[in-house]
Amino acid sequence: MRPKLKATGTRGSWFAEADGESLPCVHKHWLQGRRYYDPNLKPGKPSWDKFVTAIAEGGKVILTKGDHLGGTKFRRTGYIAIWSVENVQFSDSGLTFDMVARLEDFA
User: Fold this and answer.
1) Of the candidates 107, 85, 105, 106, the residue with the CA atom closest to the CA atom of residue 31
2) Which residue of 22, 45, 53, 92 lies most exposed, with the fewest beta carbons within 10 A?
3) What is the DSSP string of 49-77?
4) In this structure, are strands 60-70 and 21-27 parallel, antiparallel, or unpaired?
5) Is the separation of the CB atoms in 82 and 5 below 8 Å?
6) The pTM is what?
7) Which residues contact 32 (CB under 8 A, 6 or more apart)?
8) In angstroms, what CA-CA distances link 2 with 20, 94, 95?
């Protein structure tokens, strides 16, 4: 049996390292069932566009938990799991996608 993974992030980054891979982090605050919807992210900001491109092209995210400080600001308190994702949509309405399968849990 493989030991549970550990993730390492950097304050202010929307990415974390897990098993040698840099993955985008999304917060469980925006998750309803298996549908993720963050109304605050909008196209046109280079950092947001890079983040969404990583989700859409990589097909995986790290689900995180923490304190919601308002808008797009969170204080990350932990990493939950790596999920595969599909149906990524990014528009003036925000960012949405489906959480398809829980791939790995974190220690």
Assistant:
1) 85
2) 92
3) HHHHHHHHHH-EEEEEEEEEEETTEEEEE
4) parallel
5) yes
6) 0.92
7) none
8) 15, 37, 33
Q: Token pair of 21, please?
A: 């891979």
Burial classification of residue 2, based on how many CB atoms lie within 10 Å of its CB (0-12 exposed, 13-18 middle, 19 or more buried) = exposed
Residues 6+ apart with CB under 8 A from 86: 59, 97, 98, 100
Residue owning tokens 């995986």: 60
Sequence-ordered strand ranges (E) for 1-107? 7-9, 15-18, 21-27, 31-32, 35-38, 60-70, 73-91, 94-105
Q: Which residue has the tokens 């493989």?
A: 2
Q: How many residues does the chain have?
A: 107
Residue with tokens 């849990």: 105
pLDDT digits (tens, 9 = 90+) for 19-57: 899 999 999 999 999 999 999 988 999 989 999 999 999
Residue type, 93: S
